[in-house]
Every structure is written in C-alpha cells, then in structure tokens.
C-alpha cells in the first residue's frame, strides 16, 4: 500500500528539411568567389533528415510514514536535431581554422540531443503540516548537447548550433515552506550544481570546463501574507529575493583563444606578433547577483484584485546574458532589467 511504481514511454519522430536560397552566382566583392564558401563546387544540395527517439520514464514512490515520502525517478529526454545555415561548416573552416589555426568543428547538420536524468529525494511535512520540505539530489548525463554559437568575420554574423558530445551535471536542491501564523508564510530554496564537459569534438580545448548557462548555485527566499481586513477584503503581499551564482555562457571559459586579429596583426602595418591578438575569456563569467521583487495589494470578494508591484526593487545592475564571439575577441552582452514599478488589476468573471 505504501509503494507506487510508474512506467511511461514516449516516441517522437521529427522530419526536417533544409534548402539554400543563396543564388549560385552571388559573389564575394572582396574575393570574387562565391559569397558562401560552401558553393565553391556548385549549388548546395537540399538536405532532409528524420530524428527520432524513444523516451522511457520510471518512477518510484514510497510512503515511509503519513508525513514522509521517498521517491526516485529516471527518464530519457530528447531534442530534435536540425540544419544550420547551409555552408556554415565551410565558412567557419575557411575563415578560422585555415586562417588563424583554430580547431573548431561546425557542421551544416547538428545532431539530436538526448539526456539521461536521475533524481531521488524525500518530501514531507512537520508540525501537522505547518512546515513542508523537499530535499533532492540529481544526476544528468547529456549526449550531444546543442549549443548556440556566434561567429563574426568578414562574412558578417553567423549564428549556428554545435554539439557538445558529453556533459555531466549533478547537484542537490532543498525547499522549505513554513506557515508562521494563519495567513503568513515564509519559504526558501537553495540549489547547488556541479557540471563538467566530458567530451567536445566541436572545441576539444574546452573539455573539463563547466556546462554553459548553468549557475553554480541559486538561492530563493521570500514571504507571503494573505490577511483578512474585512469580511470581503483581504490584504495580500509577497516579497521574493533571488540570488544567482556565477555563470558561464560559453564552453570557452578560463581559456585563451586566437582571434581574427591574431592572423591580421603580423601582416599589418604594426607587424605585431600573432599572440597579441589572442583573447582571454576568463572575464566572461557573470558574477553573482541578487534581485528583490515585491507585490502589495488587496483582494475583494475573491474576484477583484489590485496589486502594486516592484521588480528589481533595489535596482541591481547585472547582466542578463553574455554571448562571447570567440574568434572575434569580444562578447555580445545584454543588461538585466532595471527597477520597474507598476499596478496590476484583475477581475475574475
């Protein structure tokens, strides 16, 4: 009676096609050759591919007591492969590998991504439900992780997807919620994550680095009020403070990489050695930051709500995203949202 076992399965089939619409007579004004190096031997042929994957899932749940539940689950995840801009492989090879000696592998067709994810933990409550908790550990192995890259050069800006052959991610998460008084709740959660690139034929030098877009840790704390003012009016308020740990956004991290300037400087008027143009990407890690959001208002008859809100109340300045263009020697950065106030009105019919 206390043990539950679940099985599930899903099968996906995605058929994709890619066609180049660049005319074969479109030439590069500098070289006189085809504007897309992939057309050096004629029109790029159409491509088609079918990506499919069976995704099983197994889950176990055991009620150790009326207040504590143990659980574990495992499953396979899937993301379809697809096509980059046709000729991307030739553009990257000609402009970077052959010109400045990098070792970057980009293919016109990127592979499907699969993941094997395991999680186990315990959920429960204390003091007749006044405190609830959830503690979990997880381990995920990702094959052919799809990673979005930018390349900048004389050809312009190229956006492509590469595959990271194998990535390992593991960590633990804790969630706590406590009802201090009737209508007053405090809550918090913390997550710590370790990750490692185990194999990467796209950029072999990055093996051993962390998985991109994976924060080292996150912490969330908050409180919520829902208190009666009259028989028909409730005062509601909520405050959330979120801390996000250091985060890398690219597979190239504490690494130095040659750039286009490494190839241009030796032959320029400056005649500087190539290594002067190399870029150090250790500074592209986003630092830890914290954001405070608040909401205060009233609910009337459980149908009409007026809420004043503040996002990033402390006006924390942080980066939303850092996108390095490795062979260009720089990064595209986007700032996080600054302080914003507003009023929200909701009526439920």
What's the pLDDT, averaged over the residues?
Answer: 92
N-to-C series of helices and strands: EEEEHEEEEEEEEHEEEEEE
Q: Strand tally, please?
A: 18
Outline: globular
Which structural class fits the helix and strand makeup?
mainly beta
Q: Report the end-to-end length measured between terminal Cα atoms.
A: 42 Å
Discrete helix count: 2
Report low-confidence residues grouped into runs of 5 or more: none
Q: What's the SSE blueprint?
A:
Elements: E1 3-18, E2 47-63, E3 68-79, E4 82-83, H1 88-100, E5 109-110, E6 113-126, E7 131-153, E8 156-181, E9 184-199, E10 217-228, E11 233-244, E12 256-257, H2 260-264, E13 279-280, E14 289-300, E15 304-311, E16 319-325, E17 330-335, E18 340-347
Antiparallel strand pairs: 1-2, 2-3, 3-6, 4-5, 6-7, 7-8, 8-9, 9-10, 10-11, 11-14, 12-13, 14-15, 15-18, 16-17
Care to describe what's here?
It is a single chain. The chain has helices at 88-100, 260-264, and strands spanning 3-18, 47-63, 68-79, 82-83, 109-110, 113-126, 131-153, 156-181, 184-199, 217-228, 233-244, 256-257, 279-280, 289-300, 304-311, 319-325, 330-335, 340-347. With 349 residues, the protein is mainly β. The strands form four sheets. It has a twelve-stranded antiparallel sheet. It has a two-stranded antiparallel ribbon with strand order 4-5. A two-stranded antiparallel ribbon has the order 12-13. The longest helix has 13 residues, at 88-100. The two termini are 42 Å apart.
Can you tag this structure with a few keywords?
349 residues; mainly beta; two-stranded antiparallel sheet; 2 helices
